[in-house]
Write a structure and sequence with these properties.
The protein is α/β, with parallel strands linked by helices. The protein has one domain: 3-Layer(aba) Sandwich (Collagenase (Catalytic Domain)), CATH 3.40.390.30. Helices cover 41% and strands 14% of the residues.
């Protein structure tokens, strides 16, 4: 599911949703639901402060539903944001609760799918980074979706001795994002 919860950056959602489905299939997440939520820099800054103790927005944050991601051989520490209800409320930032009582940004909508987790992307930061790196906004958002989905699949570039970075580089080439 792809949701736009910001208003400053115009984003074409249908092509990104199609890309998200392709990435889910490539990473073995096809049977698992995940939510990508485009947020304002202010909302992302709140998440970054709450979960990483860092001031200001970042481009992407991933929140695996189980707190660890799918990969079984992962050796990283349990993240601070491992509690599903707390994480779901935080991803929406200050957004009003949805009809189910959860904030309106993420939430498994289909009882038949297991929720893999949530990816939060700061659209304004993505736009700045796209300009900085000479990419289109669409390319930058696709790179961030791929990066976030790799985290939901259990990869962690901070602890895996380059495994995630190598896989991400291969997938970028395969997806035309090199």
């Amino acid at each position: 599911m792809l949701l736009n919860r910001q208003r400053r950056v115009r984003v074409a959602l249908p092509p990104l949703a199609k890309f998200l489905e392709r990435v889910r299939g490539m990473l073995g997440l096809a049977g698992r639901e995940l939510t990508v939520c485009l947020l304002s820099d202010a909302a992302m800054a709140r998440l970054n402060q709450r979960f990483h103790g860092t001031r200001g927005p970042t481009d992407v944050l991933s929140f695996p539903a189980d707190g660890m991601g799918m990969k079984k051989n992962r050796h990283s520490k349990q993240p601070k944001h491992s509690k599903s209800a707390q994480r779901r409320q935080a991803v929406a930032g200050s957004l009003a609760p949805g009809p189910s009582g959860f904030p309106s940004c993420s939430f498994a909508s289909s009882a038949s799918l297991v929720h893999a987790g949530d990816i939060a992307i700061a659209a304004e930061t993505a736009r700045r980074n796209a300009r900085r790196y000479g990419r289109t906004l669409d390319q930058e958002l696709r790179i961030l979706i791929l990066h976030g989905a790799l985290h939901l699949a259990g990869y962690d570039h901070e602890t895996d001795h380059g495994q995630m970075n190598r896989l991400e580089a291969r997938l970028r080439r395969r997806l035309g994002l090199a």
